[in-house]
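Hello,

Following up on my earlier ticket. Below are the three sequence lines again, exactly as submitted.
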Amino acid sequence: MRIFSAQAWWAAVGRLVPAAVAWSTMGLLWAAEPPLSSETEECVFCHEMVTPGLVADWRASRHSRVTPSAALGQAAAERRVSAEEVPAPMSDVVVGCYECHGQNADAHPDSFDHEGYRIHVIVTPKDCQTCHPVEVEQYSRSKHAHAWGNIRLNPLYHQMMRTVGNPEEPVEAAPHLAATPDTEVCYDCHGTKVEVQGMRTRELLDGSEIEVPKLLRWPNHGVGRVNPDGSLGACTACHPRHSFAIEIARKPRTCAQCHLAPDTPAWEVYRESKHGNIALSMGEEWNWGAVPWVPGRDFKAPTCATCHASALADTDGTVLVERTHDFGSRLWVRLFGLPYAHPQPKTGATDGIRNAEGQPLPTTFAGEPASEYLLTAEEQKIRRDEITKVCVLCHNTDYAQSFLERLEAEIERTNEMTRRATALLQRIWKAGGADPANPFDELAEMKWVENWLFYATSIRYARAMGGPDHAGFKNGWWALHRNLLELEKLARESEAQAPK
Amino acid sequence: MRIFSAQAWWAAVGRLVPAAVAWSTMGLLWAAEPPLSSETEECVFCHEMVTPGLVADWRASRHSRVTPSAALGQAAAERRVSAEEVPAPMSDVVVGCYECHGQNADAHPDSFDHEGYRIHVIVTPKDCQTCHPVEVEQYSRSKHAHAWGNIRLNPLYHQMMRTVGNPEEPVEAAPHLAATPDTEVCYDCHGTKVEVQGMRTRELLDGSEIEVPKLLRWPNHGVGRVNPDGSLGACTACHPRHSFAIEIARKPRTCAQCHLAPDTPAWEVYRESKHGNIALSMGEEWNWGAVPWVPGRDFKAPTCATCHASALADTDGTVLVERTHDFGSRLWVRLFGLPYAHPQPKTGATDGIRNAEGQPLPTTFAGEPASEYLLTAEEQKIRRDEITKVCVLCHNTDYAQSFLERLEAEIERTNEMTRRATALLQRIWKAGGADPANPFDELAEMKWVENWLFYATSIRYARAMGGPDHAGFKNGWWALHRNLLELEKLARESEAQAPK
Amino acid sequence: MRIFSAQAWWAAVGRLVPAAVAWSTMGLLWAAEPPLSSETEECVFCHEMVTPGLVADWRASRHSRVTPSAALGQAAAERRVSAEEVPAPMSDVVVGCYECHGQNADAHPDSFDHEGYRIHVIVTPKDCQTCHPVEVEQYSRSKHAHAWGNIRLNPLYHQMMRTVGNPEEPVEAAPHLAATPDTEVCYDCHGTKVEVQGMRTRELLDGSEIEVPKLLRWPNHGVGRVNPDGSLGACTACHPRHSFAIEIARKPRTCAQCHLAPDTPAWEVYRESKHGNIALSMGEEWNWGAVPWVPGRDFKAPTCATCHASALADTDGTVLVERTHDFGSRLWVRLFGLPYAHPQPKTGATDGIRNAEGQPLPTTFAGEPASEYLLTAEEQKIRRDEITKVCVLCHNTDYAQSFLERLEAEIERTNEMTRRATALLQRIWKAGGADPANPFDELAEMKWVENWLFYATSIRYARAMGGPDHAGFKNGWWALHRNLLELEKLARESEAQAPK
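Thanks for your patience. The regenerated structure is below:
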């Protein structure tokens, strides 16, 4: 039998003893016999057989154990519901199938009759806000909520998607390849516009049939999903069904579903950073569910959620940084080049931005920001201070400021590289080596995009989160420099072949 | 001392209380003083000193604690041995060194005399099948079992390996580089053909010497290893020594030893999918060893094993999906393009497939499937239904079907891209820009291979498992499109230089 | 409530029972009321408010609980301090803020007055060696300790950094881009030279101000950091603050902060190896803190630390492999091509190496090693035997030797590829397609570097640690071969354009 070290023993004791102290209050919160609504009881009765994994997952969730009124009885800082009150009868049953899928039935074009109940498949922020209105309101202001329109309604980004791949409308050169309404790849993260097209019949595996709404561009759990009820967003993007666990949302792999190299390498940079090393090495010993979340006690190094979303408190429970579900609200600068890094946009919906040349971009090709649509220096300082509050929970101010200043210097330097890449593309356009009519459909143009979208962005992310390889050999300075040389070769070839 | 949350307390209680209930039966199964054979006792006596890590690993394993007859006494669905009976005296001792390394001595060309015993180094499926015959039989039908021959005996794939790297036979241009029989890289995953070349003397670190069989192309644990006893496969590919733990095989990193980007990006797609996020975030709380495996209770999101191999049951223990060790048997379509995606082959051994043009490929260069060797539509439906059974454990049928239909649409679209890439290569061949005699040894040819082997495959995997970035910027539509433009540039250059 | 398997129960019992046995000795070591120095008490009093996360992290550390004299009372093999004695008064208080940040104040140019104490920000190996002198001495001999000078003082490597990216001095073509002293990317891993430039005033978030030393090129935790006190290294590179946990250093993600693809793909290869699979799948059940570390009992598969650093013992506590903090001291060959793989250098400081042609490289362009500076065959054998000692803890000698011999064959074959790539570059230089004056600033030159720095290295790492994909499709033979074809195309183009 294996012998365990002192640490293991302390860890075990540490887990049990304080929990025992907390026992009495827990008994009040997590009911031994949680009261289910009669509707949910009926749902569970069948679905325990037809989708047993789903029901078992929900049974292990907080939703299945706690009634809204019990949740409202918690101390303010520890509360996970932000409603002032939750109407009866919902307040006195746990949050079960019918409480979500039966709510606001008339507002849901995807409502349908199923075993005597009117239910809808797609639970939306409008449903969740019954208990979580503050989170829904904050979220509605974020770029996340507008992620569908931010690409679909921006004519330039839409052109890029149409050109490069998986077009949602027929590409001229290959009309037979018109994607079905369900196959747009960018929208897996950004969210689709889900629409109801009447009802359809589906054959079950046992040969029987079921009538269900025909949902276009479904399944989808993108952050900016346009729901049939008109609401924006999918809470399940970060709180996956049917546990909806805060623990998952706080772990970095949730963000890593989308924020990935080469265009937004947050996860790759994080996991190679010191923060990521500590979190991924020691996280199994941390308390991922505590509300509020206490740095140093509940966790030892930040994850994405820590810096960008969570409420953080000291060991006395005093909240030092407020929770937000507007995930950009602690950010002052946008590292993601379009094509240059620039101050964060004022609003989550960015499709209306126009630069000085009338293009739907936050900067011109020369790098001038579309300032009217972007944060002012004063607004930037407020946000920069907000995230610095998180840094100084564990680092001294000089350390934090020096770190951020180094990032700001790197932004300048990478923006200069975008200027060089753009100048090379303009030489190629001028020599006739590519046609600017569509700036995404030729090799030189794709290489230009890679310069700012992949490499400059990667270097900035690496600086912002301390994962140096993505500023070096991994899509960093090495790749950026080589890309410039490749663009230069294309420029020389174009000029050699240009009509005199 | 740190304070833990309610969840931590419930988790701790959840771990201990039910286990206590299960205590009495466990006492019967895991003997306090497990009976070792006298041979194994002798092995252990020395090897505890010479390879202490190996012995300690085995001591912590199920094999070291449970006798086959105790294992056979388990309820059918919970049994980990599939034999009807295990012959004495093996049935009444635990599975120790000698039970595996001393079994079937005469069948093993690598048997040798060692400290008074005739043992063999390489334990094979023929040994394992004494207790696990159903698994061995299923496995023998899989592409895994035939992974060596599927590349070594296919003249086209063999030519690719010879050309591109790490050739096992002299490359014409560099005969001095003939690989030793041990250095073929593809075979690390596919398995080598291990052969015995008499005995050799090895010097130990203390200066003494030992006589052991000289094994060519060893060590190797590839899935299709051709063993000295003629059997196919290495159970240790997924059940690594000397714990052979089912927990490891069920965790996704086991498959991630081989199923990796850019050619088979199963792991990369999985870890960025919602399933992967949940499993990698919360898996430390799951029960990875339960047989059968209950979705929602033992685990909350599937891993590779869940969908492709494991026996899955409801909480009453009723098995809903049967276990298989023929890992393709729940698959109807092969996403891996050769060069086009196509129906799964009928048999695990694919080296005999010939397309309509006589090439050893499951499709022609124009995309026509070699239907004679591939599943019929009826056979495809049976397999598609089988994997859908797994989906509907947690998702409704409409959700699952819409998901699969989207994959099927993407297969069509990516296959069309392979048609375009092939047409470009044929232009280059026609213009003399490359020589089709060896379709793998020129730049245009390698780019053509990347189009279908890397990018089209990647997009399909991303759709099949819901990790969208591998259909987008990570070896997805972006890379596929750029690759087509690069091929087109090579075609234009070739045509400009072609003799008029 | 979920039911847990037999394994879970045994695991739980295994964790608690032996720990209880160890309880009495632990009580003596980890004091219930750990004695803090009065200085540290004052530090904590304020910093619990201003940097609460930092203090809480330290409180959970071993440093906060154990006094040096208690640590010295441990049995020799279990001791974590290597000093023979620790002077009073430090020996009888736990290792708190002031014990590190107040030590050797006069030796630290960054010492400053802060709330009545003279403290320094940057704790260095010279401070750590009060308790850990053996580790500091070993480390000082390693390439790690000299990582700054090894690139900064080597004129060729320095030229590469200046050319490719993030230059620390003005690049001729873009003097306005001269990096600030804080933005050199290579130094994030290699370490910066931190210098003190007087004092500066920093505004805190509450509007108040603080006077602190102005530190150039800080923050930085690179392994070869040149500290203001002249010492080399940052222990925090691997033992991050403020837990300094051995558990973190032993987990592979610590090394993965720097040893990353494409140039040193140790992490990527490891995580795809069988060792990595086992460690990353089962590590949550292992004892990461035991000293010494017992393979098979405390852990089942090696991590980076196991093979390259840790003291390893059998279950009786007999140390079989000695601990080292000179991380190259178990390595006989350097896989990292410069440009060819070669015997490890004799000393950690490599900037003085000159090859037969006078270049600061360990091999010539033709592959001849600079033998005067490199290990002799005898010295190589000693080191090769040392790491083989680790292999044979779990594998038999024939297995280990065959594995290493296969690596050695692959080194030969990849070195031959570097010869081919170099010959192609020399054709390009000869034809005027690139200018050898700066061997890093043209496309052909960057591709040549990628051949040996990325692809040949990757193949060798894959062979050394058993993660085959990095020898195949992931920066392996496929990429190496394609790269040669691209270089050949550039050579042909250069020759076609060369003046006759």
